[in-house]
């Protein structure tokens, strides 16, 4: 006979509470390195169709395929994206230390409008705040080179075991996640749609828009067109609001310089070409790789970047999508459990 002071229900509640507390401590202890594990999960979903096609269908060796995918991820995704962010921040730092070009544009705008609304100290402070904000949200900057290498190593190391032990991973998820099979299927589909739409689809849309924006600014002789093209790549992750934040001010800059024709040209290309290419690509990609509502993407990006940094571009919309899926599951389950049996419906007609 047990002499425990806790009832069976209390023991169950305490066990769950202990697990949650330990999980919270583990997540807190991981700190910034948790982005490595989250990134591994994202890449696992992105490359899993390739892994399944090569390993499960063509019967290639799992370790050979996994190593090939890791090399591809490092060379094609991780290193170029890292280089792009470093170049972007380097140019922002340059503008923060050399505000003459920006002040010339602002002074020209002030002469056109007749209003004086800023000074060099304000511009310098805003640019320094922008660098500080980016430094908090980009792992490349928030941590030193050693920690960044550690995060990338953790990501690739985790991804290696996720693929080489794929069956055990999926069995563990089915065993320990507190959801029914139907709910797990909905969550899996939501994960696939989000990652496809916000990694593959959105990255492609952002790249196309960045190239178009950079070319437009270069053709109309806007200074530092390459830099503003890089800015457009990151802003393009914001639906509707993205690239207009680049080519709109560029057109305004041309107007302030007296180049009305070039300013009108930038506006026409932006409104007719860049915006329509964005809409067309979203429609085509939504049919092929996943459809996510623009409001979920927009709110998710704002939410995710504040929590996860640059990975929040993907993880934020995923969190919101999972929340909506779980709300639907809760509504369905609650309706099934709360619906009373109708005695009139059960009784046979007299």
Structural domain tally: 2
- Record field, number of beta strands: 0
Structural class: mainly alpha
Annotation field: number of helices: 15
Radius of gyration from CA coordinates: 26 Å
Q: Low-confidence spans: pLDDT under 50, at least 5 residues?
A: 341-350
For the terminal residues, how far apart are their CA atoms?
56 Å
DSSP helix fraction: over 70%
Keywords:
transmembrane; disordered C terminus; 15 helices; mainly alpha; 2 domains; membrane; 350 residues; elongated; AI-2E-like
How would you characterize the overall build of this protein?
By secondary structure, the protein is an all-alpha fold. It folds into two domains: 30-176, no CATH class; 179-332. The chain is 83% helix and 0% strand. It is built from 15 helices and no strands. Helix 9 packs antiparallel against helix 12 (260-289), helix 9 (181-219) runs antiparallel to helix 14 (312-338) and helix 11 (244-256) packs antiparallel against helix 12. The N and C termini lie far apart (56 Å). Residues 341-350 have low confidence and may be disordered. The chain crosses the membrane at residues 12-30, 67-89, 140-163, 199-220, 226-252, 264-284, 296-325. Its main location: membrane. It is a multi-pass membrane protein. Belongs to the autoinducer-2 exporter (AI-2E) (TC 2.A.86) family. One of its GO terms (cellular component) is membrane.
Short synopsis of the structure:
It is built from 15 helices and no strands.
List the helices and strands and how they pair.
Elements: H1 8-30, H2 34-57, H3 62-97, H4 100-113, H5 120-137, H6 139-142, H7 145-164, H8 166-176, H9 181-219, H10 225-235, H11 244-256, H12 260-289, H13 294-308, H14 312-338, H15 343-346
Helix pairs in contact: 2-3, 2-7, 3-5, 3-7, 9-10, 9-12, 9-14, 11-12, 13-14
């Amino acid at each position: 006979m047990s002499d425990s002071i806790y009832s069976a229900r209390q023991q169950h509640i305490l066990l769950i509470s202990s697990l949650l507390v330990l999980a919270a401590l583990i997540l807190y202890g991981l700190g910034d390195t948790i982005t490595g594990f989250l990134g591994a999960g994202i890449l696992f979903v992105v490359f899993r169709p390739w892994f399944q096609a090569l390993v499960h269908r063509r019967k290639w060796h799992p370790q050979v395929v996994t190593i090939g995918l890791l090399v591809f991820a490092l060379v094609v995704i991780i290193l170029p994206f890292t280089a792009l962010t470093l170049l972007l921040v380097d140019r922002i730092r340059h503008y923060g230390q050399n505000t003459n070009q920006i002040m010339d544009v602002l002074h020209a705008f002030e002469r056109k409008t007749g209003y004086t609304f800023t000074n060099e100290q304000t511009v310098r402070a805003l640019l320094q705040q922008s660098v500080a904000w980016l430094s908090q949200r980009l792992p490349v900057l928030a941590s030193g080179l050693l920690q960044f290498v550690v995060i990338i190593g953790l990501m690739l190391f985790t991804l290696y075991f996720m693929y080489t032990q794929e069956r055990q991973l999926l069995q563990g998820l089915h065993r320990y996640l507190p959801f029914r099979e139907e709910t797990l299927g909905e969550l899996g589909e939501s994960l696939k749609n989000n990652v496809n739409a916000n990694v593959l689809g959105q990255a492609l849309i952002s790249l196309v828009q960045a190239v178009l924006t950079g070319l437009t600014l270069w053709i109309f002789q806007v200074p530092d067109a390459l830099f503003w093209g890089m800015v457009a790549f990151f802003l393009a992750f914001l639906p509707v609001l993205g690239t207009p934040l680049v080519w709109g001010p560029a057109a305004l800059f041309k107007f302030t310089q007296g180049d009305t024709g070039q300013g009108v040209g930038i506006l026409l290309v932006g409104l007719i070409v860049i915006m329509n290419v964005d809409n067309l690509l979203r429609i085509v990609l939504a049919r092929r790789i996943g459809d996510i509502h623009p409001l979920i993407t927009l709110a998710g990006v704002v939410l995710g970047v504040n929590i996860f940094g640059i990975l929040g571009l993907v993880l934020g919309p995923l969190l919101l999508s999972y929340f909506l899926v779980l709300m639907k599951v809760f509504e369905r389950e609650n309706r099934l459990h709360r619906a009373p049996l109708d005695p009139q419906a059960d009784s046979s007609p007299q």
